[in-house]
Design brief:
alpha+beta, paralog of FGE (formylglycine-generating enzyme), 4-stranded mixed sheet, 5 helices
């Protein structure tokens, strides 16, 4: 049943992880159908200070991720969410292959837990309630720096998301650099942004079926546009310039990070380094998600 559900997904204080290679299971890691394996490594997160239309929360710094992880090739669709959770909260109904939206961070976390349960894996979140009113938080065993140790499905960390978006690139968008005049307007379609994502200039004010735009070099679709994607991390406003390993967010923050821009937003929000933040209970029709799972 899990394979069927996940196949439909294709048409979840920074510090060092306490995990080590010795803690990894010896059994081969089997990539989930509809997911893409992303290899561990180092990359430059954030944007240069003179990048046009950047935000102030994009401090450039080196990040090292010590574990491979898998990430859903697409945003979770309405069809997949309905199958797993038994309801569809989306505003733009009638499009099974469009990304599910109007989901809170809590609902996204609960979906990840449901996938973990179907696969017989430990849950990364502790949740109470059900449906749109569910409330979740990281499970005590996998809180803060321990998030990378969770064997189940979860939302990608802020750093994991950007590493996957970039797919080895260092340009503002994974397909290059556009004319900055296109980054803060909706009246004229930008060829660079149009190639990879749905945003305010080309979306006709709605979501679109996943896989409709050019994927990045690692086969990930809609990392730019369509819907904002909830991340695992509590939002960190100041990333700093120091090198970090396996960052996980800020325990005291009341906000959750979100990435990728949306059908409603400017092109500037679709850049690799663009970071947004929202209350975790927010259920906007611009918000969706894609699950991740660390290699164990």
């Amino acid at each position: 049943m899990l394979a069927v559900v996940l196949l439909s997904l294709a048409s979840c204080n920074r510090g060092a992880s306490s995990a080590s290679k010795a803690s990894l299971k010896t059994t081969p890691f089997k990539v989930t159908p509809g997911f893409v394996l992303v290899q561990a490594g180092s990359f430059t997160m954030g944007s240069i200070e003179d990048e046009a239309n950047r935000y102030t929360n994009e401090s450039q710094h080196e990040v090292t991720l010590t574990r491979d992880y898998e990430l859903a090739a697409t945003e979770v669709t309405q069809e997949a969410f309905q199958t797993v959770m038994g309801y569809n909260p989306s505003h733009f109904k009638g499009c099974p292959t469009c990304p599910v939206e109007s989901v809170s961070w809590h609902e996204a976390a609960a979906y990840c837990n449901a996938l973990s349960g179907k696969a017989g894996l430990a849950a990364c979140y502790s949740c109470t309630g059900s449906g749109p009113g569910i409330r979740c938080e990281p499970a005590p065993s996998y809180a803060q720096a321990k998030v990378y140790e969770c064997p189940g499905y979860r939302l990608p960390t802020d750093a994991e998301w950007e590493h996957a978006y970039r797919a080895g690139t260092r340009t503002p968008y994974y397909n290059g650099t556009n004319d900055p005049r296109f980054r803060v307007g909706c009246s004229e379609v930008d060829p660079i942004t149009d190639e990879i994502g749905w945003y305010c200039a080309n979306s006709a004010a709605k979501t679109h079926p996943v896989r409709g735009k050019k994927p990045n070099a690692w086969g990930l679709y809609d990392m730019a546009g369509n819907v904002w994607e909830w991340g695992h991390d509590k939002y960190v406003a100041v990333l700093g310039s120091a090198k970090v390993t396996d960052p996980w967010g800020l325990a005291s923050s009341s906000m959750q990070v979100a990435r990728g821009g949306s059908w409603k937003y400017y092109s500037r929000g679709l850049r690799a380094a663009a970071r947004a933040w929202f209350q975790p209970f927010y259920q906007g029709k611009e918000h969706g998600f894609r699950p991740a799972r660390g290699r164990h």
